[in-house]
Design a protein that fits this description.
45% of the residues lie in helices and 13% in strands. With 199 residues, it is α+β, with helices and mostly antiparallel strands. Strand 1 (56-61) and strand 2 (64-69) form a beta hairpin. The chain is elongated.
């Protein structure tokens, strides 16, 4: 049976939905815009075919669709952009605290997480360019204040700090409660290779 004829505007809409959705785009996003004779799968399959020879292709992930770089370009992308670094979860937790409470001191970061903060984590975040020193707090000891950098906004696709996700998203990435022995657990986690996303 011949594939159904998909209106060009519908393909463009599906493409925009996949691009804009923070999660894999499912049939639920597209269904309200479909004529009776078409299914969301028809549209996504047609869009995948249209993108098949592009640098960014449409692929199924879980129960939805996402854009990914074409697998055959991986070698060239790695040569041009270098290997993607991944932050361990410990560093991501610290980055979340800094992003939402900046400017913030190291003791305040430790209080927010409920666990001591190793110098290795701070050095890693400084090395990646995601945080920076932001003056000193006028309190005894004049501790250094820490804040995120413009690279942090760029890395996470934000126009400004006002675009940080709301409380519902934060619950998903907020630090987990720690029990006794947490500092040792943190030191072990920091031995993992660095990166910009949890493993």
């Amino acid at each position: 049976m011949a594939p159904p004829d998909i209106p060009a505007r519908l393909l463009r809409l599906a493409e925009a939905l996949v691009f804009a959705s923070p999660r894999p785009a499912t049939w639920r996003l597209l269904t309200p815009f479909l004529p009776a004779h078409l299914s969301a799968d028809d549209v996504f399959v047609a869009l995948a075919a249209r993108c098949a020879e592009r640098g960014v292709v449409l692929v199924q992930q879980a129960d939805g669709w996402v854009f990914r770089t074409a697998p055959d370009l991986n070698a060239e992308l790695q040569a041009a952009l270098g290997e993607v670094r991944k932050l361990p979860r410990v560093a991501l937790e610290v980055l979340v605290v800094v992003a939402y409470h900046q400017p913030i001191t190291r003791p305040e970061i430790e209080a927010a997480r409920g666990v001591s903060l190793s110098q290795a984590t701070m050095e890693l975040l400084l090395e990646t360019g995601l945080i920076r020193a932001h003056g000193r707090r006028e309190t005894p000891g004049t501790p250094t204040l820490w804040a995120t950098t413009p690279l942090f906004l760029e890395q996470f696709g934000l126009k400004s700090l006002r675009d940080l996700p709301g409380s519902g998203v934060i619950a998903a990435v907020s630090p987990r409660p720690r029990g006794p022995g947490s500092p040792a657990d943190e030191r072990a986690a920091e031995a993992e290779p660095p990166g910009l996303a949890p493993d």
